[in-house]
Specification:
2 helices, 3-stranded antiparallel β-sheet, 40% helix
């Protein structure tokens, strides 16, 4: 007998990649993981902004985009964008 269940997948995608970081049974757990990932990406962007000789505008835009705390509204395309996706799976 198979059991259908809902899981929440946390990852980040960009123009040439899609990286799954974790899978959660609850949205609350997924949100915590998503926010941690968002903050890591944000810290990396701030690091590169401080050291940017060129493309400062791009790094400023990335920092602004990754500062969004709503997984439904965040948009950092075409750069790394963290996400939460709901998947239905069979066990």
């Amino acid at each position: 007998m198979t059991r259908k269940m809902k899981v929440y997948v946390v990852g980040h995608s960009g123009p040439e990649h899609n990286s799954i970081q974790s899978v959660h049974r609850t949205y609350k757990g997924a949100f915590k993981s998503w926010d941690k990932l968002r903050v890591e990406l944000l810290q990396n962007a701030k690091y590169f902004l401080k050291r940017a000789a060129h493309n400062k505008e791009m790094w400023q835009r990335i920092v602004k985009n990754l500062s969004c705390k709503d997984p439904e509204k965040i948009n950092n395309s075409p750069h790394d964008t963290p996400y939460i996706r709901e998947w239905k799976v069979e066990e």
